[in-house]
Amino acid sequence: MFVSIDQEQYQIIEEPYYKEVHDEISLFEAAYAARLPMMVKGPTGCGKSRFIEYMAWRLQRPLISVACNEDMTASDLVGRFLLDKDGTKWQDGPLTTAARMGAICYLDEVVEARQDTTVVIHPLTDHRRTLPLDKKGELLHAHPDFLLVISYNPGYQSSMKDLKQSTKQRFGALDFSYPDRDLEIEIVAHESGVSTEMAGKLVSIAERSRNLKGHGLDEGLSTRMLIYAGSLIEKGIEPLAACSVALVRPITDDPDMRDALDAAVTTFF
Ligand code: ADP
C-alpha cells in the first residue's frame, strides 16, 4: 500500500494501551465499516481520546486530532490562503487534510468551537461526504476511508453551549464513563506504575468524589487525574501531597469542598 510522508506522520505505529470497557470496539468497527460518523460522549479524562487512538491503530488509519476551543473558526479547520514570498498559497486545515487523506478526524470537545465551525462539518457527515472549500472554490469529495469522530461532554453543556439537534442527529454515539472499579485500578496501576493496592486507594477517593457530582462538584475525579496522582507517588512524592496537587487542588476552588475532599484523602492515607 502506498503511504505518503504526510500520511505516515499521522499513522499510529505502536498499539496504544486500551482496555475495553463494554463492547465499544466491535461497535466502532461496525460504525467505521458503515462510515457512520461517530460521537463519543462522556466526562473528561475517562478514556475517549485513548479509545480513538486505539481504534485508529486497530483500523490502520491515520489519526488527525483537533482540540477545539472557543476561538476556533471554520478556517482553522478547513484551511486558508497564506501569504508567502511568491504571493498567496492555500493551506489545508486539519479537517481538509483528513478528508483528502482518508484519515480519522477527531474533533475533541467540538461544542467549544463556534457555531459556524460545526456547520462546515455537516456535508461531510451525510451521503454527500463533501467539504466545500468556499474561499478556494473547491468542492472536496472525502476519501472513501475518511471518518469524522467528535467528542462531547454532556455534563458541561449549558443551553448556550450545546450541540444543535441538526448536528447531533448526524452521528452515532457511544457513551463513555469511568471504567468499573477493578478495571480502573488496573488502568491506573499500568499507566502510573503504582501497585494495585495504591491504585485501589486512589480509585476509592475518586469514587467518593464522584458521589459529590452535582453537590458542589461539576464533575468527579477522572481516571486521568488518578494517573497523575499515581505518577507523582511513583516519583517519590508522599501520597497526601500527591493527592493534594493532582486531585484536590485542581478540581475545586471552594474551601469547603477542598476540605471535604482532603478529608476523603486522609481516610485512605
Ligand atoms: P478523555 O479523552 O475522555 O478526556 P483520555 O482518553 O485522555 O480522556 O483518558 C485519560 C487517560 O486515562 C488516558 O491517557 C489513559 O491513560 C487512561 N484511560 C482511561 N480509560 C482507559 C481505558 N479504558 N484503557 C486504557 N487507558 C485508559
UniProtKB/TrEMBL annotation:
Keywords: ATP-binding, Nucleotide-binding. Transmembrane segments: none annotated. Residues 184-267 form the CbbQ/NirQ/NorQ C-terminal domain. Pfam families: AAA_5 (PF07728), CbbQ_C (PF08406). Residues 38-171 form the ATPase dynein-related AAA domain. InterPro entries: ATPase_dyneun-rel_AAA (IPR011704), CbbQ/NirQ/NorQ/GpvN (IPR050764), CbbQ_C (IPR013615), P-loop_NTPase (IPR027417). It comes from the Bacteria. GO terms for molecular function: ATP binding; ATP hydrolysis activity. Coiled coil: none annotated. Belongs to the CbbQ/NirQ/NorQ/GpvN family. This is CbbQ/NirQ/NorQ/GpvN family protein.
